[in-house]
Design a protein that fits this description.
With about 525 residues, the chain is α+β, with helices and mostly antiparallel strands. The protein has helices at about 10-20, 30, 60, 80-90, 115-125, 155-165, 240-255, 265-285, 330-345, 365-375, 385-390, 405-420, 490-505, 515-520, 520-525, and strands spanning about 40-45, 60-70, 75-80, 95-100, 105-110, 135-140, 180-185, 200-205, 210-215, 230-235, 310, 315-320, 325-330, 345-350, 355-360, 390, 430, 445-455, 460-470, 480-490. The radius of gyration is 22 Å and the shape is globular. About 50% of the residues are buried. The mean pLDDT is about 95. Its cofactor is [4Fe-4S] cluster.
C-alpha cells in the first residue's frame, strides 16, 4: 500500500472525492491504510461482541463512521482551540470526546462528508490531524506545564515546536516501518513517561551546570514490552531537532519491515545495543560526536499527572482535574474552555495520564473553579482510585478490542471508593481492551489486559488477564503476571478490593503497592 502511494497523498482524495462520494466511494487501501496518516480510523460497528474480534474480516468490523484523532503536540491548547474541538464533537461527533494518554483528543461518529469542514475549523485555530496515526511520527509528548514551574529542569517548548514545525507532514518521515512515539520534556516529574517511547529527551544538568537532555531510545509496550535505554549522550537544546531526526532516520533506514509485529524501533535496539546505535547516530546522521552526559535525576513525585494545585512561576496556579477515565463530551470541553477564560488565563493542557489542566488560575478563584468543574463530574481532588484509573477506547469503538473498558473503569473506581474509603496510597489501575497496551497495562500497579474468560458456569464472557506491580522510575519494571490469573469483568471490583485489603494489612511502613507486589507471596495476589 505504501509503495503504491504515500500516506500523505490521501488528503486530496478525501477532500475532492470521498467527501462528495460518501463512504462507499473510498478505496479500500485508503480506508484501512492511508487515511490513518490523517488521524482517521473506521470505528467498530455496533453490536459485535469481543469474541468476534479475531474472527471477522476487517470489512465486517468496519462501521461507516470514523474515529478522528486531533494531535496536540505538548498537550497545550488555548481556550479557542479547545472550544473548536468541543464544537466539532458536539456538531459532528454525537458529543463524544476522549482525552488520551498521549495528549490527543479523539472524536467519534465522524462521517467522511464532514471531514473537510472539520479540518478547516481545526486548521483555522492552529490544530491538525496530520500524522496523528499511521506509520509516522505520532504526537510528540511534552510536559503540559513546560516553562511554567520552578521545578523544571529546563523548558522544552521551543525544541519540541521546532521538531513539529520542521518534520510533521514531511514525506522524508511519512513511510516509517511502523508508528514512532516521541517525548521531549524538561519536567522534573517525568510526566511524559520517556521510558516507553521510541525516543525520549529528558531534562538533565551536566557536570558543568549546563542544562540539556539525556537521550533514551527503543521503548515500547504492546505484546513485546521493552523499556527504552540511555545512549549516554548529552544533547544541547539547539541539537534536539537534529538528534530527533537522526533517531527517526535510523528507524526509517534500518528498522525491520518484513513483519509488522517486528517493525518497531525496540527490536532494532535490542539487536544493536545502545553502543552501536549511538555510533550510527553520530557517524551517519549527525556527523559529529555527542559528549557523554549524566542520567536524569529521580522524579520529584511518582504520579506524573499534574492533578491538583501546582504553583506556577508567575504566582498563579495550575489546576489539574480527572475526567472519567479520559471520557468527556464536547459539551464538557466547551464548559472547560469557558472556565479557563473566566477563571484562568485562557490556556488548557492535556496530560499523558488522560487528565486536563487549567493554567493561570488566581488563588482567589481556585475554589470557584473547583466547584464549577465538579458540577461536570471533573474532579480536582479525586479519590486515589479515580485519579489512578485509565482506560483505552475499548469495545465501544475499537475494532481490535475484546472487552469494554471505559464503562468498566467507571464502575470499578466508583465501587472501590465505596468499599475502601480509607485507602490512602497512590494507585494506578490501567484497563486495556486487548493486548496492544494503549492504556499501558504492563506499567500499572494493577493492569488489566482484555480477553475472553470462562465464568463459574463455564460460559465465555468478557474478562481480563491481570498484571501486578508495574512501575516507572528507579528500577522500572513491568507488572508480574501469573499463570491462569484471569478475572471476569464483573468480578474486577471484588478482585481489586481483595488484593488491596491484603496490601493494607501486610505493607511495611512507606511501602508502595508495586514494592509490596515484588515481595508478595503468590497466594496474596490470587
Amino acid at each position: 500500500m505504501k509503495k503504491d502511494s504515500d500516506g500523505l497523498t490521501v488528503r486530496d482524495r478525501i477532500i475532492n472525492i470521498y467527501a462528495h462520494g460518501g463512504f462507499d466511494s473510498i478505496d479500500p487501501q485508503d480506508l484501512r491504510g492511508r487515511m490513518r496518516w490523517y488521524g482517521l480510523y473506521t470505528q467498530r460497528a455496533p453490536g459485535i461482541p469481543g469474541g468476534k474480534t479475531a474472527v471477522l474480516e476487517p470489512e465486517e468490523l468496519d462501521d461507516r463512521y470514523f474515529m478522528l484523532r486531533v494531535r496536540i503536540d505538548g498537550g497545550r491548547m488555548t481556550s479557542e482551540q479547545l472550544r473548536t474541538i468541543a464544537g466539532i464533537s458536539t456538531e459532528f461527533g454525537r458529543d463524544v470526546a476522549d482525552v488520551t494518554d498521549r495528549q490527543n483528543i479523539q472524536l467519534h461518529w465522524i462521517a467522511i462528508e464532514d471531514v473537510p469542514e472539520i479540518w478547516r475549523r481545526l486548521e483555522g485555530v492552529g490544530l491538525s490531524t496530520t500524522e496523528a496515526c499511521g506509520d509516522t511520527p505520532r504526537v510528540i509528548l511534552g510536559c503540559p506545564l513546560a516553562g511554567e514551574l520552578e521545578t523544571d529542569v529546563l523548558d522544552a517548548t521551543e525544541p519540541l515546536r521546532r521538531v513539529v514545525d520542521r518534520y510533521i507532514g514531511d514525506p522524508a518521515f511519512s513511510n516509517l516501518p511502523r508508528k514512532f512515539k516521541s517525548s521531549i520534556s524538561g519536567c522534573a516529574e517525568h510526566c511524559t513517561n520517556h521510558e516507553i517511547n521510541d525516543v525520549g529527551f529528558v531534562g538533565v544538568v551536566n557536570a558543568d551546570g549546563e542544562r540539556g537532555y539525556d537521550l533514551w531510545v527503543g521503548g515500547g509496550l504492546s505484546t513485546n514490552p521493552r523499556f527504552a535505554e540511555r545512549l549516554g549522550v548529552f544533547v544541547r537544546p539547539d541539537q534536539v531537532e537534529a538528534a530527533w531526526a537522526g533517531v527517526v532516520g535510523i528507524f526509517r533506514d534500518y528498522g525491520y519491515r518484513r513483519s509488522r509485529t517486528h517493525a518497531r524501533l525496540k527490536f532494532l535496539l535490542a539487536d544493536w545495543g545502545p553502543e552501536k546505535f549511538r555510533e550510527v547516530l553520530e557517524t551517519e546522521y549527525l556527523k559529529e560526536a555527542l559528549p557523554d552526559g549524566p542520567p536524569p535525576a529521580q522524579p520529584i513525585q511518582d504520579q506524573r499527572d499534574h492533578v491538583g494545585l501546582t504553583p506556577m512561576r508567575n504566582g498563579k496556579l495550575a489546576v489539574g482535574f480527572a475526567p472519567r477515565a479520559g471520557r468527556l463530551s464536547g459539551s464538557m470541553l466547551t464548559a472547560v474552555a469557558d472556565l479557563a477564560d473566566r477563571l484562568g488565563d485562557g490556556r488548557i493542557a492535556a496530560t499523558a495520564q488522560q487528565k486536563l489542566v487549567v493554567l493561570g488560575v488566581g488563588s482567589a478563584d481556585v475554589d470557584e473553579l473547583t466547584d464549577e468543574l465538579a458540577t461536570h463530574d471533573l474532579l480536582v481532588k479525586p479519590s486515589a482510585f479515580r485519579r489512578g484509573t485509565m482506560a483505552c477506547t475499548g469495545l465501544e469503538f475499537c475494532k481490535l478490542a475484546i472487552v469494554e473498558t471505559k464503562a468498566r473503569a467507571d464502575v470499578l473506581y466508583r465501587e472501590l471508593e465505596k468499599r475502601l474509603p480509607e485507602f490512602d496510597e497512590p494507585i494506578t489501575i490501567n484497563i486495556n481492551g486487548c493486548p496492544n497496551s494503549c492504556a499501558r497495562f504492563q506499567t500499572a500497579d494493577v493492569g488489566f489486559k482484555g480477553s475472553m474468560v470462562r465464568d463459574d458456569d463455564g460460559a465465555m464472557v468478557e474478562g481480563f488477564q491481570v498484571h501486578l506491580g508495574g512501575h516507572y522510575g528507579a528500577e522500572a519494571a513491568f507488572g508480574r503476571k501469573f499463570r491462569g490469573l484471569k478475572v471476569t469483568a464483573d468480578g474486577m471490583p471484588d478482585y481489586v478490593e481483595r488484593i488491596l485489603r491484603g496490601y493494607l494489612e501486610r505493607r511495611e511502613p512507606g511501602e508502595r503497592f508495586a514494592a509490596y507486589v515484588a515481595r508478595a507471596e503468590e497466594a496474596w495476589l490470587l
